[in-house]
Amino acid sequence: NAGVTQTPKFRVLKTGQSMTLLCAQDMNHEYMYWYRQDPGMGLRLIHYSVGEGTTAKGEVPDGYNVSRLKKQNFLLGLESAAPSQTSVYFCASSSTGASTEAFFGQGTRLTVV
Amino acid sequence: GESVGLHLPTLSVQEGDNSIINCAYSNSASDYFIWYKQESGKGPQFIIDIRSNMDKRQGQRVTVLLNKTVKHLSLQIAATQPGDSAVYFCAENISGGYNKLIFGAGTRLAVHP
Fold first, then answer.
1. Residue B100: which of A58, A101, A103 has the nearest Cβ?
2. CA-based end-to-end distance of chain A
3. Could you give the CA distance from residue A113 to residue B10 in angstroms, rounded to a whole number?
4. N or C terminus of chain A with fewer C-beta within 10 Å?
């Protein structure tokens, strides 16, 4: 059982480049989340999805876009990367809104130079 | 804005002692509170949760206490072991429409032999 898988694990981008982070879960979860984690700070919610075809903004959505075309996948896009987006990105999923146990991926370390 | 915060950024304990990690929250609408453990290089891992209508819940070596009067949450770890060394996050599940998990900044627990 793979759980939540994030691709890639590491990436270095130049300012202005674009990229997409992929999150895949094999637990048939409805809810999926994208968080960023910066040194000395907790996880901040970027965007989330409550089901296939739906997305919603979190705490820090600016500069990011997401898509949930398939239930098992949640994509996070950076259209024009900025150094301020250097961070570790975590994807998570949970079964329903009432479930509090969110399962996290291993993270993607992104550096924007 | 709504936030979840922690009192102590770093906690050092001796192996075998009990650990207490504290957290303050500000959103009265939260229906669940959750503790996560994050080891270096890994994603957060669920430890234990507690509903807002409870004041105590026990797991294996862990106990979570909730004081809604002062909006305070704590995680007690009994007989702390070196494997407990990690960063611990409290999070609140904000219901109403879409559920969101909002995390605090984290407390690093260092267990010394």
1. A58
2. 36
3. 31
4. N
- Closest C-alpha to A49, from A66, A34, A61, A32: A32
Which chain A residues are Cβ-neighbours of B101 within 8 angstroms?
33, 45, 92, 94, 100, 102
Name the β-bridge partners of B107.
B88
Torsion angle (degrees, nearest 10) of CA B104, A29, A34, A66: -150
Nearest by CB to B34, from A41, A48, A100: name it.
Answer: A100
The per-residue pLDDT for range B54-89, each reduced to its tens digit, is 999 999 999 999 999 999 999 999 999 999 999 999
Convert the pLDDT of each residue in A57-87 to its tens digit.
Answer: 998 999 999 999 999 999 999 999 999 999 9
Query: Which residues are CB-contacts of A97 (< 8 A; sequence separation ≥ 6)?
Result: A30, A31, A50, B95, B98, B99
